[in-house]
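User: My instructor asked us to take a sequence, write out its structure as C-alpha cells, and then describe one feature of it. I'm not sure where to start. Here is the sequence I was given:
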Amino acid sequence: MSEQSELQKRAAALTEATERALASLESYTCTIVMRDRIKGKLMPESQLYTQYRKPGAVYLRWVGEQHRGMQASYVPGRDDEGYFMARESGLKGLIGARTWPQSSPLINTLYPHHFSISESSVVALTQTTLELQRRAHSLGKLRLESLCTLHDEELDAPVTKVVAQLSDDPGDGLRWPRCTLFICERHHLPLHVRLDDFDGGLFGEYVYRDFRPNVVVDESWFALPKR
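Assistant: Let's start with the prediction itself. The C-alpha cells for your sequence are:
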C-alpha cells in the first residue's frame, strides 16, 4: 500500500468517527474565535459565545473587543433562507432585534465575513469541509499532505491534525484549495479549522473553544433579548 493510500485509509476512519459524532450532536455551547482574511486583508479577530441546537439553530453574541455585545441568531422555520435576526449593542440595541438579508450590502460592508450566521456552526463548517473533500476526491484531486497527533495550543487539547490539498484550480468550483483540520480526540470533531486561499494566503481560521456538547440551551436567547 502506498503512503498516500495509507493516509487516505486513516483519514477515512477519522471521517467516519466525525460523522458519528455529528449524528449524535443535539446541541452545544462554546466560544468561537474567528480570523477571516477578506480580499487579501486580515480582519480583526472576533470572539463569539454561541449556542447551537438541531436542526441548525444558531445564537451568537460577540464577547471580544470587536463588536462587543452585538447578538445574532438564525432559527430554521422562523427565518427564511438567506435571512437572520440581529440586535446591535449599546444604545442602538434599544430599538430591538431586526431581521436582515444575509446579502445586505450594509451588513457585508460593516461586518465583512466569509460565513453566514447559519454557516458559522461547527456542524455546518464540518459538513461543508467534508463535502468539498468528497468532491475533490471525485475529481481525482484530493491529496493528503500529512496526518499526525499533537497537542493543539489553540484548543489546549490533544488532536489529530489532517492537512488536505483539494485542488489548486479555482475552475473546479471548490471554495478553498487546502484545509487543515485539528480533530479533537475527545469529541471527534474538527474544533480548529484552518482554510487556505487560492493566492496561498489565509482564507480563514476558526477555533471552537470550551466546547460543551449535548447541553440544555436557553431557547429565549434565540429571540435576542436585551442583555
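For the description part of your assignment, you could build on this observation: Residues 84 and 100 are 6 Å apart (CA to CA). Try explaining in your own words what that tells you about the chain.
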